[in-house]
């Protein structure tokens, strides 16, 4: 990036020299412009603050003490120092005196309740109650005499005996399974 140094402004040459002194050899040309923008903005902020301090003190012009005060306030406002190591150790000791709460869940990853998960079943099978044998036969004869059901799956629903296992469905003898 050393090409064209003779037509660069003095500040840009200074930025390039600073980058080179820090061991930065390869960079894009706009990096110099970004540093210059940051540099100019910082100087304007410091001088504006120095002017405010000078006016507050009743001075006619900005002097070296106003600039130092502006720089110090800028540094204090922009950068904060971490607390001393002793303070951090004391805070850690006081915090570590409090034991962690006991874990309610067992080992492994705690999961939400089953009703809140997406893998829980969201349906229930409606299994008709078991009727006495004679009542079932009368019901079948009445249905066939009055209105023969063109849909055989409806007949199967009324003829299903109650199961003790909700995951297993049994069909009466001679009935066809729905497909």
Automatic annotation (TrEMBL):
A Pfam family matched in the record: TFIID-31kDa
Keywords: Initiation factor, Nucleus, Protein biosynthesis, Transcription, Transcription regulation
CDD domains reported for this sequence: HFD_TAF9 (cd07979)
InterPro entries hit by this protein: Histone-fold (IPR009072), TFIID-31 (IPR003162), TFIID_subunit_9 (IPR051431)
Originating species: Davidia involucrata (Dove tree)
Family: Belongs to the TAF9 family.
Molecular function in Gene Ontology: protein heterodimerization activity; RNA polymerase II general transcription initiation factor activity; transcription coactivator activity; translation initiation factor activity
Name listed for the protein in its UniProt record: Putative transcription initiation factor TFIID subunit 9
A Gene Ontology term for the protein's cellular component: transcription factor TFIID complex
Gene3D superfamilies for the chain: Histone, subunit A
Compartment list: Nucleus
């Amino acid at each position: 990036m050393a090409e064209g140094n003779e037509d660069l402004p003095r500040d840009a040459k200074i930025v390039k020299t600073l980058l080179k002194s820090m061991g930065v050899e390869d960079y894009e040309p706009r990096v110099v412009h970004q540093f210059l923008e940051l540099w100019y903005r910082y100087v304007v902020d410091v001088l504006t603050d120095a002017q405010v301090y000078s006016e507050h003190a009743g001075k006619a012009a900005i002097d070296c003490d106003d600039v130092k005060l502006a720089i110090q306030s800028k540094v204090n406002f922009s950068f904060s120092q971490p607390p001393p190591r002793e303070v951090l150790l004391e805070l850690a000791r006081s915090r570590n005196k409090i034991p962690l709460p006991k874990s309610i869940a067992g080992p492994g990853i705690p999961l939400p309740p089953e009703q809140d998960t997406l893998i829980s079943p969201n349906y229930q099978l409606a299994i008709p109650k078991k009727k006495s044998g004679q009542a079932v036969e009368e019901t079948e004869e009445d249905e066939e005499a009055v209105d023969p059901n063109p849909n055989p799956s409806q007949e199967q629903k009324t003829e299903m005996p109650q199961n003790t296992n909700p995951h297993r469905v049994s069909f009466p003898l001679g009935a066809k399974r729905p497909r």
